[in-house]
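User: Before I run my own analysis I want an independent prediction to cross-check against. Here's the chain; please return only the structure tokens and, at the end, one sentence I can use as a sanity check.
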Amino acid sequence: MELDLVRFNLRAHIDQVVRTLAVEAHEKGLELLCEWKTGVPGHIIGDQVRLRQVIVNLLGNAIKFTGREVALEVGVEESTRTKSSSISSFEIRASGSPPTSRS
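Assistant: Structure tokens:
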């Protein structure tokens, strides 16, 4: 697999993904949160298409299988001393049981 590494605005990219999925979450009566930890760089070099695919799949599954709240936390896992590079981390949390269907 070849990655298409480009420089892009991480916050704008992730916020757009979350806004897209917020409609589905709202229809289910869920709260969809996006939390940004201190130190997350504004721009990163990475494969924004594949990052979007992963985040959409994970958040989509969380929305589908939870009953109350879904949160995406964006942070920095590890960085160099010079702060010239960093590794972003993405954590998906879902709380509550899935809604029960009634017939």
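Sanity check: The helical segments are 10-27, 48-64.
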